[in-house]
Specification:
Number of helices: 10
Strand order of the largest sheet: 8-9-10-11-12
CATH class: Alpha Beta
Number of domains: 1
CATH topology: TIM Barrel
CATH architecture: Alpha-Beta Barrel
Structural class: alpha/beta
Helix content: 25-40%
Distance between the termini: 24 Å
Radius of gyration: 18 Å
CATH superfamily: Metal-dependent hydrolases
Order of helices and strands: EEEEEHEHEHEHEHEHEHHEHH
Length: 304
């Protein structure tokens, strides 16, 4: 079955920052925060202190993935220029996303370079309190002045906007505020990462979120659902969450993503899509839309 992966990452060098301070590489894919916490950021077979476009494209080819959208995030450190350069090297396989911190004093220079000079067409905003905007800034209202400046910039530059709002129960998880904000930008396309990141046994939360976010210009990627639900393959709870989303949102709103490479600490790349291909909860047509057709419609025109 054809596939497009809308949620991957490239890492020239691990240089992240989060609620536990700076993140530096240790080798073999491991990294350490300033707090002393050690994490496995990259599966060792994919990288030592980074993740190259050669490794990513090799994985895509091995699994018959047509192309990918490479996103940004504080978790590994902003990789804007590295990702853009990778897209020049592999123009038919990598579409780059750019990002910035809206508190940067000279953000206008970054915006001009990324979205005007380089012509990047996708914005990724990570606002989570673990490793996003609210990890090292006070709580930011997703329907407030700071974020509306971001949305307005994206609207003016005609960008597709990915947004990761973290997990339920945290100050960054502002579904109602996000819904109010998005309604003010009907001309924009928003993609909410991780299907709003429902955890184990949170179908009620997901249903309520979907009702609030059931807008024409909102889509969802399903990256890392197996990780969030903490279940073994074939990830039945993740399947049920996706089924519910399709029942509420329709066949055209769900986009497959792997969250490569970090997502592969919890399941193999193959398992990240075969749990859908082999599922009895979806028709063949629905699987084709999730894995390929929806992403092709949104991003196919952005390939160089």
């Amino acid at each position: 079955m054809k596939k497009i992966d809308v949620h991957t990452h490239l890492i020239e060098n691990i240089c992240g920052i989060g609620s536990e301070g700076e993140l530096r590489p240790l080798g073999n894919g491991k990294a350490i925060y300033a707090s002393g916490k050690v994490i496995q950021l990259i599966p060792a077979e994919y990288g030592d202190k980074g993740l190259t476009p050669e490794v990513l494209t090799k994985v895509l080819k091995e699994h018959d993935v047509e192309f990918t959208v490479c996103l940004q995030g504080n978790y590994s450190g902003f990789q804007n220029i590295y990702t853009y350069e990778a897209s020049l090297k592999y123009p038919n396989m990598i579409i780059p996303a750019g990002t910035y911190d809206p508190f940067f004093r000279n953000k206008h220079l970054i915006i001009k370079h990324l979205f005007e000079d380089l012509g990047i067409k996708i914005l990724k905003m990570e606002v989570s309190n673990g490793s996003g905007l609210m990890a090292n800034h006070p709580t930011v209202d997703l329907d407030g002045e700071v974020m509306h400046e971001v949305y307005q910039m994206a609207s003016e530059h005609k960008l597709i906007c990915f947004i990761d709002i973290g997990r339920p129960g945290n100050n960054c998880y502002q579904i109602e505020a996000l819904s109010r904000a998005i309604k003010k930008y009907p001309e924009m396309t928003f993609i909410i990462c991780h299907l709003t990141a429902p955890q184990h046994n949170q179908m009620d939360i997901l249903e309520e979120n979907l009702k609030l976010l059931n807008l024409k210009n909102i889509y969802f990627d399903i990256a890392s659902l197996p990780n969030n639900t903490k279940q073994a393959y074939p990830f039945y709870e993740a399947q049920s969450y996706i089924r519910k989303a399709m029942d509420v949102m329709g066949i055209d709103k769900i986009l497959w993503g792997s969250d490569f490479p970090n997502g592969m600490n919890y399941c193999s790349y193959k398992e990240a899509y075969t749990y859908l291909e082999e599922s009895s909860l979806f028709t063949t047509e629905e699987k084709e839309h999730i894995l390929y057709k929806n992403a092709k419609a949104l991003f196919g025109g952005l390939l160089k």
